Amino acid sequence: MQEKKKIIKEKLEKERDMLLEELRDMGKLNPETGEWEATPEELDFPHSDQNDMADRFEDFESKSSMLKTLEPRLQNILKAIKGLNRESFGKCEVCKKDIEMARLEANPAARTCKQHLEK
Ligand SMILES: [Zn+2]
């Protein structure tokens, strides 16, 4: 189980880093709210016209919605990484046997084996 745990942990940490990179591309973490906020594109020149303003607004909106999809994924991964420390990690809650590796890789938060899939 230790070996399995290590493999999954590395996989999750890689995913976390990739997500963080994507998030940082589009926004920044507000330390006060703990939420990711889109960063508006820098103004190239001070007197931009209406079209520029609309473009920028659109860009900001699409970044915001991307952040909203990415953030829960990041939270899930962080939760899964924490879950690796559970004593019961990788053990089926029903039959107490080891959960299949493929299943754990797909869902590190799985609490049951394939046979006892939670409904
Ligand atoms: Zn089971």
From TrEMBL:
Matching PROSITE patterns: ZF_DKSA_2 (PS51128)
GO molecular-function terms, A-Z: zinc ion binding
Keyword Cytoplasm on entry: no
Domain Zinc finger DksA/TraR C4-type residues, every copy: 88-114
UniProt biased composition (Acidic residues): 34-43
InterPro entries in the record: Znf_DskA_TraR (IPR000962)
Annotated Gene3D superfamilies: DksA, coiled-coil domain (1.20.120.910)
Keyword entries, A-Z: Metal-binding, Zinc, Zinc-finger
Cross-referenced Pfam families: zf-dskA_traR
Name of the protein in its database record: Zinc finger DksA/TraR C4-type domain-containing protein
Organism: Candidatus Nomurabacteria bacterium RIFCSPHIGHO2_01_FULL_39_10
Lineage: Bacteria, Candidatus Nomuraibacteriota
